[in-house]
Amino acid sequence: MGLLTHLLTLPIAPLRGTVRVLDQVLLTAEHEFYDPEPVYEQLAELERQLLERRIGPEEFDAREDELLDRLEWIQARRRPPRGG
Questions:
Q1: What number of other Cβ atoms are within 10 A of residue 39's Cβ?
Q2: Integer distance in angstroms from the first to the last C-alpha of the chain?
Q3: Measuring CA to CA, how many Å separate 43 from each of 38, 51, 66, 74?
Q4: What does the pLDDT read at residue 8?
Q5: What is the pTM of this model?
Q6: What are the residues whose beta carbons fall under 8 Å from the beta carbon of 9, sequence distance 6 or more?
Q7: CA distance 83 to 5
Q8: Could you list the pLDDT tens digit for every one of the 84 residues in the chain?
Q9: Which of 42, 56, 60, 62 could pair with 50 in a Cys bridge, judged by C-beta atoms 3.0 to 4.6 Å apart?
Q10: How large is the C-alpha radius of gyration of the chain?
Q11: Sign of CA dihedral 17, 19, 20, 21
């Protein structure tokens, strides 16, 4: 019976492989999307720009708020659900 099932489902084998690859791509993309490290790097770069006087305090504050909001959003989604 296993051989017969294998032969009958053989035409959809490439589809199963494609689905498996797409699942891996999705998992990798989600991991990168929720990775806080790039946000920390952007915050450090922003501070360097302020110290080098390439941006003013107002622009620094606005961009820092955006990055901190993004970091908070990432951290909230990475936490395990409470009361589970």
A1: 19
A2: 42
A3: 9, 12, 10, 15
A4: 78
A5: 0.63
A6: none
A7: 44
A8: 578 787 777 778 788 888 889 999 999 998 888 899 999 999 999 999 999 999 999 999 999 999 999 999 999 987 766 664
A9: 60
A10: 23
A11: positive
- Dist CA 46 CA 62 (whole Å): 11
How many angstroms separate the CA atoms of 1 and 51, rounded? 72
Residue with tokens 């909230």: 76
CB 70 within 8 Å of CB 39: yes
Write out the two tokens for 54.
């390439």
Name the token pair of 1: 């019976």
